[in-house]
Records
---
Amino acid sequence: MVAPAVSQESPAASDKPDEHPPRWHVLVRVLIAAAAGVLLYLSGPPRTLWWFAPIAFAVLAWLIHGRRARAGFGYALCFGLGYLVPLLAWTGEYVGVVAWLPLALAEALLVGLVGAAIAVVGVLPVWPLWAALLWVAGEALRAIFPFGGFPWGNVAFTQPEGVYLPLATVAGVPLIGFAVTLTGFGLAALAQRLVSRELGVRQLLAPVLATLLPIAAAFGSLPLVGTDANDGEATVAVVQGNVPRAGLDFNAQRRAVLDNHVARTEKLADDVAAGRLDQPDLVIWPENSSDIDPYRNPDAWAGIVRAAQAVKAPIAVGSVLVGDDGLPRNTMLLWNPAKGPVNQYTKRQLQPFGETMPWRPFFRLFTSTVDRAGQFVPGTEATLFDMANARVGLATCYEVAFDGVVRESVKGSNLLAVPTNNATFGYTEMTYQQLAMDRVRAVEHGRTVAVAATSGVSAFVMPDGSVTQQTGLFVDAALVQRVPLRSTTTLSDRLGPSPEWVMTIAGLGAFAFAITVRRRRRSSKA
């Protein structure tokens, strides 16, 4: 990588002293940083205020640029809390702050580290570029650390309605995050130039390009977003059977939940017989639609058989199976009306503090609620379900947040299904945040996405990210639609994780070079 040239800015402009500012100044900046984080939160679903996101990053950059690393860490930490505390409120819906606030704080601390690095690269020219690359590096870190990562707050997932969405087909989630932050940082740099009356072409060119090029690139990516049915079409049904009530006692309701999905599928079959709905080629049930192991419970087996034979189509059934080791697996079963279960997929990316409990003895010191977390065993490989003329890739619930898991799931597929269970999160925004991820994945991989939820929101997402049908929360429903099947491999699929790695390495390289520049400046002043 070619090292960036040293900035021609004066030391006073590029390294604003932080020594002993008035306390009220610091307090005002802290409040502004937190407010900018809230602005980023407000940019995402269920709202459609996507343009708030680059503005939020412009405010963050204005606060950080030219300051020391410790100030960058502090302001970015406050920004992260402003964003993540409301974003992740759903994690504490029924267990309180013990899960919610520590998780938000842990993620915000990682955002703080990125803020410190962004402050350091402020001494370099075209610093908005290096800052945006470092943001991508920070999201890459949060996707793997801690406890297997938690990429839920990635910037791209705030953008299903935004102009940046087509970039997903080029290089996925990292490119959208890079584009949004580069626009915001470019705006901050442009504002700084205007305030300081540096109005020459040379001074304004880089900030203007940083602001406008990401948007231009997004519009330029539109022709790459394919929507044609290049592998045929299929009539797909998603069944939302609903649950008796929301809450952590969902598992205690598992027989009622199974009965609901059987009954709703039988009603679907009645609607088909009466001509009110088209005959589906395949049916998707949600995650946990049969938490009773049908291999061990004849009643559960009989109910699923009855539903499959009534609807005359294969069903992907979300079930919890118990292995020979006595431990559960979160599994999707491919249920043939005539043959019963003929294939299965076991969820690979398990949700910590839900399906698994890291450091269980340690966290038990604070609350006994940790013992409600499961001891699920993860699967090891992606599996395609052959359902009529569809080859269905599966990303179960939490998995849809992880780039690599979804990328593996869509290989060889022409349709992506996301069975999910959000009943334990009540009427929070969680399900809408997850639907935003489904929409980004649809564009990223050029697939129709069928979302089946126990209690909502179930939906059909087209390959361009548009939602054609969706249900409400905590209602029983069945959606049926003729959808395009697509086997196209997008540029994002072909590039895989390499763009994220390139951006991460470039950002870290700039960070290392900026440290050298700062040291040289200190030495020259000594």
Note: The mean pLDDT is 92.
---
Amino acid sequence: MSGMKSERINDFAFKIATVNGTGSASANGLIMQLIFRMGVPVSGKNVFPSNIQGLPTWYEIRVNGTGHVARRPDFDLIVAMNPETYARDIEELVPGGWLLYDSSWPMADTLKRHDVNFLGVPLAEMCVKNFEGGRTRILMKNIAYTGALAALLDLDMEVIRGLLEETFGERKRHLLDANFKAIRMGYDYAAEHFECPLPIRLERMDATRDSILIDGNTAAALGCVYAGATVVAWYPITPSTSLVDAFTAYCRRLRVEEGSGRSKAAILQAEDELAAAGITIGAGWAGARAFTSTSGAGISLMTEFIGLAYYAEIPCVFFDIERVGPSTGMPTRTQQGDILLCAYASHGDTKHICLYPKDPAECFEFSVQAFDLAERFQTPVFVLSDLDIGMNDWVVPRFRWDDTYRPDRGKVLDAEALEEVETFYRYLDVDGDGIPYRTIPGEHPKGAYFTRGSGHTKYGKYTEDEEEYLEVIDRIAVKIENAAEAVPPPEIRSRPGAQYGLITLGACDGAVREAIDQFDEEGLRFDYMRIRGFPFTPEVTRFIEAHDLNIVIEQNRDAQLKSLLTLETPVSKEKLASVRRYGGLPLSARQVTEDVSDCLGIAAKSAEGVGA
């Protein structure tokens, strides 16, 4: 059958369906880099299993010249390399779409849709004829489908050649030649047997000139380096481990003493999450900028130590790369299920500073801010990213760095200052801002104190007296409340004539922004607020109060952001409604428009009932 009637240039989505462990990640990464190098905005979503090799895995690529990054839930083209998922893959194609598959083996007629174009390329057969060794043939089959896509989508072959040369260089010329041979093989077959390019195709742009392609965990790790972090303790857990892997790689280049070559960073894999939290807190107490990277399951195990850091007022940073829970949940799917957990982590009365980046650019930026906030307010700080941000590739503006930046170490008394102090009391609020002075162990004998995780007075002495306890715990509450002035303020976008507000945080931003643009075309206007930090700034309350109805869009079952807004602002809960998606896949604009429309319909019916 014929394909789509009109051309769509730089505006389509396609998916690659393979098997975990077959080396497809390299081919998919090459395709992403290729589109990026052609100057075209692109986003990639990796949908992979948490279990062993051999299970289905998918890589979704969205090309969008205007820069929309949200997931597209239906696809114009699918590269079907896994017969076990043929039926599911074919079902997800739009009418008139294309299925590229390995025709070395016949496809059952029962699978074929009359409104889909089937493009068979004998990839395995060609690789058997042209390459030696079973593993090599599997790897080259993935590279060969990249070549077929190059012909079908009009990918630039010169850019492909350049990327391969960057990857392999002269020292691995045999690998470069083999990879390019496989690409040329797929390209030539597609060009000879199909009408190329397809109506969906790429065309060079200049929209990525001042941008980079990076994942959030790598960006956060670089931010930690720039912030001056020298200690990380962690226990491996998906999807956070790559943050520490990246930090380790950066430290090998940037945290090395000149001359001796000795490492200037301590990177420790602990025996479990509890130990990782303890090491991080101990390092923070000793004066280092220290962090741990984990996921929601890890935060659950760390909560007793988090309570110690809160009450003993020790600066430290926790990166929570959220995944689907509870229990071990679905470790390779994304969610925003730890909003309440991190805001109030630990037993007793606690409240924590939290930052919510929307993409890798903010992961870099907020990493630096997290350490400054932790030391300024002498408390744990949480950076809540998620799997979608942390492990997927995003096109973001090139990072900018201010060389005049100096870390905000907060209220620290050095040896010279301590020399002039008559008596130092660790938990005494001298300035009336809720923040006491701290010292670095070993700086001066006058700076010694007993770190109290049990009931203590403002002078650092043990107590179980009611008034003495209240004086300390209430001061800490004031300190955290004052932190609202220092966290990143919400991003607010106002529209003339808007009656309703949309509220979200984190990676939902792209889908919500795209949905707002779609609503604009229908003449429906929304104001928009993206929460970036907690405790909430006064702007959050003002935004909610300015609208009859605010729809809170988030990726968890229990409306945790809505609950936090209800708990932490004085607004009426009747002003807040919920849109929730929590199945583990990144949010799409279509889901937002459908759910917001349903929400407004329910609200309208309710209003009619009240007026009847």
Note: The mean pLDDT is 95.
